[in-house]
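Entry 12.
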Amino acid sequence: MKIMKYILFVISAVLLVGLFSFKSIDGQLLPTKLRITVIDGLGNPTEGAEVSIFENEKDYRAGENEVAKAFSDKKGRVTFKDLKPVSYYIYATKDDMTNDGEGVVTAPLDEGKLNKVNTVIE
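Predicted 3D structure (tokens):
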């Protein structure tokens, strides 16, 4: 019986140490992510759209100091990781289509979650 209690104690201690050592650099347990799905005016996913995100409207309007940039996959998706839980301005473009004026700012992101938004390019 003593051995069983000892084994349970050791297992519990190892699990607790493991749980508290899983924090990321900024103290979050899970990273804050933003998945943007780029769709055309008919609601179809748009592959190969260049998507940039900005933390403020001034940088968005000037097209500078982007937080991150990526290209959408065949499902029209781009996922940005390790973000601050704030609102982001989205600029998406492909060929002569953009999302200018089509819901370009997100709500503040939920910390430690995968936040999902769509943006329309026309």
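Annotation: The chain has one domain: 28-121. Strands lie at 33-40, 50-54, 68-71, 77-80, 89-94, 97-98, 114-121.
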